Please model this.
Amino acid sequence: MTAALPREFALIGRHFRPLAAPAGLELGDDAAVLAPPGGRELVIAADAMIAGVHFPPDENPARIGQKLLRVNLSDLAAMGAAPLGYLITLAAPHDTSDAWFAGFAAGLAEDQARYGIGLLGGDTTATPGPLCLSLTILGHVAPGCAIRRRGASPGDGVWVTGTIGDGALGLAVLQGRLADASGRLVDRYRLPQPRLGLALAGIAAAGMDVSDGLVQDLGHLCRAGGLGAEIETEAVPLSPAAQAAGPDWLSACLTGGDDYELLLALPADREPALLAEAARAGVPVTRIGRFVAGSPVVAVRDAAGRAMAFGRGGWSHF
Amino acid sequence: MTAALPREFALIGRHFRPLAAPAGLELGDDAAVLAPPGGRELVIAADAMIAGVHFPPDENPARIGQKLLRVNLSDLAAMGAAPLGYLITLAAPHDTSDAWFAGFAAGLAEDQARYGIGLLGGDTTATPGPLCLSLTILGHVAPGCAIRRRGASPGDGVWVTGTIGDGALGLAVLQGRLADASGRLVDRYRLPQPRLGLALAGIAAAGMDVSDGLVQDLGHLCRAGGLGAEIETEAVPLSPAAQAAGPDWLSACLTGGDDYELLLALPADREPALLAEAARAGVPVTRIGRFVAGSPVVAVRDAAGRAMAFGRGGWSHF
Model:
């Protein structure tokens, strides 16, 4: 008999095989086979995204694919790593259309070209629940040069790339809670810009990406380093669109998720090196506070020097 | 303020951090950092499992964790690779209990010890849908020695490890469609035994694991190699429990999923080498047919030499 191929194989052949990197063996084997880059360490992370939790169920499928890839690329950026390839597992409702898969793959194809990577493998299955995606990203870094969360010292500056809060406000716009004629906030929520390409080894003493809210994520750096931090709200870089939202949205900017900027601990004597590297890469960087000795507490002071309190420190998916 | 840690961080710290390999950095960073084994190629695969699709929703959580790990280990075994580590993403319903997570992690811990690997990273999130799991496995192999699906030649024998059909019959037992006093069939469905540790490089001309049904998966080897295959049903090794189910269940054995045995193409002059290696590893191997020139058709003949036909070639998750 000729074994009739079920729909999952047709989907893989039509939409995902064209995305395969050479190491992905055309997605036709049980696994990918990859010669690791010589003299480098591997950097590996995985993130999941669920329809209705991490993105609206009716989101453009190309944007879903790109966001899934980019939130993982942001984890590589946080470690100072360069991307190598990725695997996807995708559990989709039975009635997911071929056009949806085509759009999803088109978004991945666009970003594969942008970031110079390819698909290594994965799995496609059906689910009675919402669309559930998982992506594993592989990258590489010079041995010993990965940026870790631990490593900040009292006196180091707290620095961020780009602007903070646009992603959280973009979600508020999508939910009809905020207006933004520019469209920039929604763009930032939909399509993070992973801060790849900054050579931070030997410059940043510690770092991570801001994905769950600036205050909560700074708390992670504090706990990892066994110290506290103070930030000044007026120093936190806000985009023109976030500034236009007004002071009522400041708290959302500081605690909302989906920034995908880098948060760094920087010894004072390395500020010139960071500024030079940031200028070379065309990435804005801003000092927003300092690390201090003591318990892992993040103190947030407003323009008048008053301590601010928040109902929650960040965005949790559980 | 002290950023209150949401439940996902508590879950990770309590249940998953103890599973972390050294390269997993205690799951406290944005990614794992791994020095690849010198002079080896990496082998990487990912598989997803959904409650109600791949396992019963009330399945013992330890068994879910073990099966998730083992189906991925089976992909490494199919390539002739040795395991290195893994990442998990887990989307769980909001009401998932702490005891469930503890059981799931205990199953992983048991198999980590069995297979000598550790957790590298992942993601935990909530979903309004069913439990949705994804695991990415990393392994390594000597350069050029990965077993591929392509490579079979006309005249090569079709070989399998172990016994075929127990997993599919085990599912039938769980569904109340079949009785099995021995409990062996359900055990095989619940806990695959990945065939790691067979040194097949230079012996098998092609191979894969049998996960979606023998006939369908043999069809994959045929398409990859551009040839056909013939198998004799009386040569297919069945366990005592599968034999006890009787001839009505033969078709289910040949086309059902969840075997996680290896399916190999073996040139006749390498039979002694395979038999010696199988004896060394303590893994039964059986010749069930041959590859033939022609179109990628799998011919299945019964004990009387008659061609058998099946309604479907295997098990699809879509």
